[in-house]
């Protein structure tokens, strides 16, 4: 079995466990007034679980593959140097750095740096465009999370927020 099917099988098992939790355990402690609403706190997890199960099943069963498409080769460990492993590892390290810098630099600063450095790692070299897109994206995401969803994210570094 190809590696994409193995990964899909693991994702299928995770989605089945997540779906079980969403359908059978999340709604038991809801107060009666919440049970009368059309959308419950478990609605989005249920949608995610069903979507994940359907998509991973389509990969495990081979439904997504077209009949004329060549079969993709498995990852060949002998040719590991041909893959962009360095970029992948740098992006993983950047994700860890983003998580660690979120409080000290604030959401806007750490998100800007993550997007800017991430695009640099992936090969973009137009620095002004990278800075503009990173600044707009960080500001837009912060606005959506803070103002629209009502979830407070500290936009500034911790030292400027008094703690």
Automatic annotation (TrEMBL):
Keyword Transmembrane found: yes
Transmembrane segments: 45-63, 83-101, 107-123, 130-153
Record domain DUF1468: where: 6-153
InterPro entries recorded: DUF1468 (IPR009936)
Superkingdom: Bacteria
UniProt keyword terms in alphabetical order: Membrane, Transmembrane, Transmembrane helix
Record keyword Isomerase present: no
Pfam family, one: TctB
Protein name: DUF1468 domain-containing protein
Source taxonomy: Bacteria, Pseudomonadati, Pseudomonadota, Alphaproteobacteria, Rhodobacterales
């Amino acid at each position: 079995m190809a590696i994409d099917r193995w990964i899909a099988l693991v994702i299928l098992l995770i989605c089945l466990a997540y779906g079980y939790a969403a359908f059978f355990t999340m709604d038991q402690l809801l107060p009666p007034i919440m049970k009368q609403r059309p959308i419950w706190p478990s609605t989005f997890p249920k949608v995610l679980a069903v979507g994940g199960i359907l998509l991973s099943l389509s990969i495990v069963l081979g439904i997504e593959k077209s009949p004329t498409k060549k079969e993709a080769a498995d990852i060949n460990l002998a040719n590991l140097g041909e893959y962009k492993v360095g970029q992948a590892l740098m992006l993983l390290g950047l994700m860890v750095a983003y998580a660690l810098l979120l409080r000290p630099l604030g959401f806007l600063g750490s998100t800007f740096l993550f997007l800017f450095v991430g695009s640099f790692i992936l090969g973009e070299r137009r620095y002004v465009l990278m800075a503009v897109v990173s600044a707009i994206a960080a500001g837009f995401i912060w606005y959506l999370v803070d103002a629209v969803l009502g979830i407070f994210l500290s936009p500034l570094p911790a030292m400027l927020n008094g703690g």
